[in-house]
Amino acid sequence: MKKNLKHWAAATVVVAAGVGVAHGQDGKLSNDVLRIGVLTDISGVYADISGKGAVEAVKMAVEDFGGKMFGKPIDVVFADHQNKADVGAAKAREWYDSGNVDMINDLANSGVALAVAGVAKEKKRHAIVNNASNVGVTNAQCSPYTVHYAYDAYSLANGTGRSVVEGGGDTWFFLTVDFAFGIGLEQQVGDVVRANKGRVVGAARHPLGTTDFSSYVLQAQASKAKIIGLASTGNDTINAIKAANEFGVTKNQKLAALLLWINDVHALGLPTAQGLQLTNAWYWDMNDESRAFARRYMQRVGQMPNMAHAGDYSSTMHYLKAVQAARSDDPDAVSAKMREMPINDMFARNGKIRVDGRMVHDMYLWEVKAPAESKYAWDYLKLIKTIPAEQAFMPLAQSTCYLVKR
């Protein structure tokens, strides 16, 4: 996919009516258009888990909705935030102020997501986070206009982290990517480790996009911790796992990949990735609905979708249904409908957006299959357990969001 990235500059795509049924004309749009912006990593370390795939997932949702709202076009625009919070915030401000963008989706990179959430709050426009984990999205940066949809650091910590500790992994050393995402994930998992009478013996923080993990892996090896927690994702996690194997670290210590994607497993290969546990909100081979979506997506993108891509699709569809129900793209009216309407689709069952903007749904603990267990292409994961929605996400009572009534 990366060899085509140079063609993915910021652009506008008008999505024509597709496979969805026509929707009624009874409603009003400001500026006679409904515009969705996909702000994502097009060319950086998260391009394979976000990027072009995020844009296509949003476009699929718009096409399946019917391509129009109240007889007016639904547009999709996209841009590369370059994994820089200031770039993301500036693009969001431009889109909201002069680009007639009603909702921004995806937002890979926690620093970018937090920055855009702040702009969304200021401008009273919608932002939906599907590809970032920092719980500040629904705490310090919460607003009626921002939704944290697919997963967050709390759900990852209470999935993979808790499972590993309960299985005897009671001493941890973290290899952490040094920005809001990694630091927040390390903190959340560290809290789980300590709450279960384990110990965090140290951490090494590395820059985003590190290619040489030798010094960091040697620090982890010297710690003699039972578990090396990888508080990173995408290429950083792939490179860390490869380095740990090359240095023989996995002979005496176990790796806990705290945010591992199906794309990462594909890149690593089952011989290297087998046995790793991961917490995800969604897997393409879960059921008939997920498989049907995944096959359509595969035809467009050339690889299977991950949980964020599925979340991009689901959340876009939910937003469009909320606009339709509100008979307007007025942000406050749409926010109320988004929180009122349940989410039942190929991504989640009985999903619900809370007052703090957290979409709560079941999460799943998976294990990467051994090569002999895989029967067909992309057959990589087996289910270990389902984590019910009420356990998967931070209790509302612990939220610091100003919208939560005490």
Which labels suit this protein?
13 helices, 406 residues, single chain, 7-stranded mixed β-sheet, 16 strands, alpha/beta, 4-stranded parallel β-sheet, Rossmann fold, disordered N terminus
Account of the protein in words:
The chain is an alpha/beta fold. It has helices at residues 51-65, 85-98, 110-123, 153-166, 180-195, 214-223, 235-246, 262-268, 270-273, 288-301, 307-326, 331-340, 389-392; strands at 11-14, 34-40, 68-69, 72-80, 103-106, 126-129, 146-148, 171-177, 199-206, 227-231, 254-257, 277-280, 352-353, 359-360, 363-368, 381-387. Strands 1, 2, 3, 4, 5, 6 and 7 form a seven-stranded mixed beta sheet that branches. It has a four-stranded parallel beta sheet with strand order 9-8-10-11, with helices on both faces.
